[in-house]
Design goal:
Number of strands: 25
Shape: elongated
Structural class: alpha/beta
Number of helices: 23
Largest sheet: 5 strands, parallel
Length: 625
């Protein structure tokens, strides 16, 4: 079988048949520029419409051998095998190429599946074995290559025409070969003047562009199936620019030790360090990371050259038995290796048991199927890239489980001094909107002085011209601080400022408590609260106390009625404030004294012990905004 490209050159194509198959063949011929003539005992509506659009000839009657007179190409596409066979015999007798739509092997040619992008035609043929599959492959190739390839063909046509003018025949083939190897994006973007300039450069013997087009990079990647898919995706984008990639599989600390929790491995770079070593010693030109694995600050000799478009950034509930997170019964076991996931989810469902879960995605799903866990939590991005699912796979809402910094995006790292490689990667891979979001998230993590395994989630997304940032931070006591900011920003600098602001909102502010005192000896109440990080100002009789105009206390503490009397001067300064502090008292007499002074208590400890009073104060401070 010999695939060829056939130009019409004014020759007429005759289609025998008027049904749907005949109409599809006729459409292909019309698209290629053939004038058509249709002969059929009955012409269907699809064929009639096509004839009207393309001004084709038609004869609605049975086929006759004389219908092939003057034909350059013939298609037999009737419902009758006998008629089709006769058309083939008549065409052969007239030395005309013929296609039998019902029996491709009987004819001289078959129609390949085609897809077009600009002047580029992509044809796929399965020898008639699987036409639908050929069509699918042609469509997938066209989608993969995209409109840039059609534009590149147009540029190369301009170059070819100009080369015929300025280059001697013996030099054209080599020059046009080098020009055809230029990056697709560059070819697609050239106007005719730029195309001619490139030909002139070839005439002058300038080799720089052609050398870059045949460059070769080495990519350092973890060896897991997911990491390999991610590295290949980056390599494919570079290939479109004429740059080949060899993937160097590297085993990291996090891959070697899968028995201990990540936070117990003693490094915040458990999936990164060995890849950076490959960059430093020259074994690799770039490394592909899941962005969420990167530390918030890179070493001075490293840089993020590009950030990819983002896969689904959400975390996913996965179970073989339960349809969603809320359907889990009390005591159910949930597997996750992430403190961020564990603590955010435990705040919602403290009745569940959370156990550590290590291994790649396939291993984790297998452990789930084996019944070792009632549910596990994985990243949707990884599941999508691997086309993997559990029986029930349900994404959590961003507000319910805030994703890790950079989750869903790929970060491509290079040596800081290797600008040529970084430039190519940025041109091939970088998504400027996602880059801005990731810069915001990483700036927040950096401001919190936290690593990638910290129980912190920060996620930024752009809606129109507004960037929305959601944050969550789990504290040691199980409390989860949450924040949300919406802001119009431009550029990386403003994105990082927004991330720092999110970090400030996720930082527990110091609580200020004013404790009224009647005695000079050390206070057990003050000591216990200071141990919790609470700022305590002890107020004695006659003291003015802190200036309410500068800072209003979160809480006033009156352990006795005499303490209320001692604080009268300070209370007078608080009465005109819009926001009054909470008031906690010990015992009924203190409650009556505070109420009489105009500060009705918010919390009363009926137990006269210091420990009970401190517990009450702690509970109220935790609850207050």
């Amino acid at each position: 079988m010999l695939p060829i490209t056939l130009r019409p050159n004014g020759r007429r194509a005759v289609i025998v048949g008027g049904g749907g198959v005949a109409a599809r063949k006729a459409q292909t011929l019309c698209a290629a520029g053939f004038p058509i003539a249709v002969v059929a005992a009955a012409i269907g509506p699809e064929m009639r419409a096509l004839l009207e659009r393309h001004a084709g000839e038609s004869a609605e009657r049975p086929y006759q051998a004389s219908d092939l007179t003057g034909a350059g190409l013939v298609v037999a596409a009737t419902d009758s095998d006998e008629v089709n066979a006769r058309v083939v015999d008549d065409a052969r007798a007239a030395s005309v190429l013929v296609c039998d739509a019902r029996d491709p092997a009987r004819g001289d040619f078959a129609f390949p599946a085609t897809a077009r992008t600009g002047d580029l035609t992509i044809a796929v043929d399965s020898g008639g074995a699987a036409p639908a599959f050929s069509k699918r492959v042609a469509g997938e190739l066209a989608a993969f290559l995209g409109p840039q390839y059609g534009a590149a063909v147009k540029t190369l046509a301009n170059m070819r025409a100009y080369a015929k003018i300025v280059l001697a025949p013996e030099r054209r083939a080599a020059a046009l070969k080098a020009l055809a190897a230029l990056p697709i994006a560059d070819l697609a973007a050239m106007n005719p003047a730029q195309a001619e300039h490139e030909v002139d450069a070839a005439v002058a013997g300038t080799p720089a562009r052609a050398e870059r087009a045949t460059a070769h990079f080495t990519c350092a990647s973890r060896a897991s199936a997911l990491a390999t898919i991610q590295a290949r995706a980056v390599a494919a984008r570079l290939a479109r620019r004429g740059i080949a990639t060899t993937i160097l599989a590297v085993t990291t600390t996090g891959d070697r030790d899968r028995s201990r929790p990540i936070e117990a491995l003693g490094s915040i770079n458990v999936f990164v360090t060995e890849l950076e070593t490959a960059l430093r010693d020259g074994r690799a030109d770039y490394a592909v990371h899941s962005c969420k694995d990167l530390p918030s600050e890179l070493a001075a000799d490293m840089q993020i050259a590009a950030v990819s478009a983002r896969e689904d950034p959400r975390d996913a509930f996965c179970s073989e038995r339960y349809p969603n997170f809320n359907a889990l019964p009390p005591g159910a076991t949930v597997g996750t290796s992430s403190p961020r996931r564990r603590l955010q989810l435990a705040a919602q469902r403290p009745d569940l048991v959370f156990e550590d879960l290590r291994g790649n995605v396939d291993t984790r799903l297998r452990k789930l199927r084996d019944g070792r866990y009632d549910a596990i939590v994985l990243a949707m991005a990884g599941l999508n890239r691997l086309s993997a699912r559990a029986a029930y796979t349900v994404p959590f809402g961003i507000d319910d489980l805030v994703p890790a910094v950079g989750q869903g995006a790929l970060a491509i790292e290079t040596r800081a001094a290797d600008e040529p490689v970084a430039r190519e990667l940025r041109a091939a891979i970088n998504d400027s909107t996602v880059e801005r979001c990731v810069a915001c998230e990483r700036a927040g993590l950096r401001a919190l002085r936290a690593g990638c395994s910290a129980p912190i989630g920060i996620h930024a997304v752009v809606y129109g011209d507004v960037t929305v940032v959601t944050g969550a931070r789990a504290l040691a006591d199980g409390t989860v601080l949450r924040a949300r900011i919406e802001r119009r920003i431009e550029g990386l600098a403003e994105a990082e400022i927004l991330g720092v602001e999110m970090a400030a909102r996720l930082t527990p502010r110091s609580r200020l408590v004013v404790l009224a005192r009647t005695r000079e000896r050390p206070s057990r109440i003050a000591a216990a609260l200071r141990a919790d990080g609470v700022e305590v100002i002890e107020l004695h009789a006659g003291d003015d106390g802190p200036d309410p105009a500068e800072r209003t206390p979160d809480m006033l503490l009156f352990p006795s009625s005499a303490a209320v009397s001692a604080a009268q001067a300070y209370l007078a300064r608080l009465r005109d404030l819009e926001r009054r502090p909470l008031v906690a008292v010990m015992g009924a007499q203190s409650r009556e004294a505070a109420g009489a002074a105009g500060f009705e208590p918010d919390a009363v400890s009926d137990d006269p012990s210091v420990d009970a009073f401190v517990r009450l104060v702690r509970e109220r401070l935790t609850a207050c905004p």
